[in-house]
Amino acid sequence: MKNIISVEQRGFIQGRNIKNCICVTSEAINQLHNKTFAGNLAFKVDMAKVFDTLEWRFLLKVLKSFGFNDRFCSWINTILHSATLSILVNGKQNGYFHCKRGVRQGDPLSPLIFCIVEDVLSRNISKLVEQGKLELIKGTRYVQVPSHSLYADDIMIFCKGKISSIQALMQLFQSYVAASGQFINPLKSTVYYGFISPARIDHITNLIGFNKGCLPFTYLGVPIFKGKPKKIHLQPIADKIKSKLSAWKASLLSLAGRVLVKSVIQAMLIHSISMYSWPSTLLKEIESWCRNFIWSSVCSKRKLVTVSWKKSCKPLSEGGLGIRSLTLINEAANLKLGWELRNSNEAWVVLLRSKVLRGKRTITHHISSSLWSSIKSENNSIDANSIWLIGTGKDIYFWLDPWCGESFVSVLDIPVHLHHNLKARVSDFINDFNWNFPLEVENVFPILKQLALKVTLPINVRKDTLLWKPSNTGVLTFKKAFLFKQGTGQNSHWAKDLWSPDIPPSQSFLVWRIMHNKLPSDENLSLRGYFPSACSIYKSCSETTNHLFFECIFAFKLWSCIASMLRTSVITSMDDFWVVLNKQWSPQ
């Protein structure tokens, strides 16, 4: 599919994801306010009931145009004609009706068929650009903003605000609607603009029938705005999280059950937190709601005796609850974005790279971008943990890039103010897949040849590749980025046994609190200003965690009974408990 569907379509196609679609839109919106003749426009187009209105004849014609053979088209035609509908009258099904258009929703084949059909629209938009009928928004220097971006039926189109471009686009929409049977809903479609007078934008909206929009707006569930992410842009997402936590009946859930909040909250944040660098205050606020919800079932109420959030966010193997810190998730996502900026050729990467890179140097001045603030903080981490694998050597700077360990400017301690003069590439020192150093370089820097000869050159032509050193494969995935940010701690010897699937989660959670000495016993409550009391059974002893579970007469008798059944010594502490548990017991 990815070989026949245009690169602008990023929905349901293997190897393409929704994040790239959002990044393209974010960077394009940040270019709207650049001053230019006729201004810049962005159209958010809503297609109404796309699955229900698709004409079968148009679909089959498109499949044949793409080169699908008659047998395949016959199969699709049979599937389409096999669909029937039934209506409910007073709760009962009455009759069946044969369909004459549309594809089945829920069928795994339907999204792929729809992407093939909608590629007709995508290719025709690109054709308008090639013919000069649709003028693109100027990016920076030699790069222009992409003409459009699609995620299934969510369409964003970017162009200059010339009437001729708008009319060409509207004529294309009319032709596509007439042929495909689909319908553009003008009431839900919006036009966003930059540096266009109110009278002119009113004329444009009247011409196309779309609504007039303003920033920020939501696209694919993520806020789109101009400039650096601020709390006001992301606060609505945080408010949704708080309202969801408040609506849950946490009192009906055990403490172990409330820990599942980690999955729901992270799912609500995943796209926005993987793009933008969130304000730390907002992330800490959300984490405090989650912490309070887990321990007290109320977002705004804090319990007295709790395990610290930092310990709770450690992996299960290190004595935590396996909750992933939102701060670390955001940092890992920023690191992944920075890695993509150097390795990917996605449309948003090409556009942003042209704005922020000057050779090997990154800019220091402000630019209008919502993504750059997320990426620039991770540049040092990427430089320190990456190395080049030589291919042709054309993309690798000989002096500045790390390709044989440290960069040569570090090895030779060359002053920073001279770096901009060092423009030689590794390919300049390779001839017929062998090293070829000028005599002047060998005489002045003999160590360079010694270091370079340790690097094996390829025997065939291949691209230069930037590798992530902490990874065995050299590829930086989000998982590896998170592990890099999280770091590796010391494993707890009791964690594997504690979270065994054979033990009820509520009991595992109780023992976990005991191991951290965070049960609300009188011993812990007295540290927070409460008056201590004595054990209700053994009056002369204070209520400590160790007394409750091991030293009290009732607990001692219980452990003695268990010890006699297991034929082992009496358990008097948690250390004894784990020693007994780690013995090789038979199934009997």
Question: Descriptors for this entry?
Answer:
588 residues, alpha+beta, two-stranded antiparallel ribbon, 25 helices, 18 strands
Helix-and-strand structural type: alpha+beta
Q: Averaged pLDDT, please?
A: 87
- What is the end-to-end distance? 56 Å
Question: What's the alpha carbon Rg, rounded to whole Å?
Answer: 31 Å
Shape: globular
Note poorly predicted spans.
none
Number of strands: 18
Largest sheet: 6 strands, mixed
Strand content: 5-15%
Q: What count of helical segments does DSSP give?
A: 25
Helix content: 40-55%
Folded structure, characterized:
The protein is an alpha+beta fold and 588 residues long. The strands form 7 sheets. Strands 1, 6, 7, 8, 9 and 10 form a 6-stranded mixed sheet that branches. Helix 23 crosses helix 24 (553-566). It is globular and about 90 Å long. The model has no long low-confidence stretch (mean pLDDT 87).
